[in-house]
Amino acid sequence: MKSLSTSVQLPYRRWYDNHNAVEQPAVARSVVVAKDTPRNDREAVMEILLSVENAPTPTGGVAVVARGEVDFSTAGLLDDRVVEADELVVPPRSVVVDLSGVTFLSAAGVGVLVAAHHRSLRRGVPLWVVVSHRSVLRTLTACDALSVLRVVDRSPAPGTGHPNSRARHA
Question: CB 81: neighbour CB atoms within 10 A?
Answer without folding.
Answer: 21
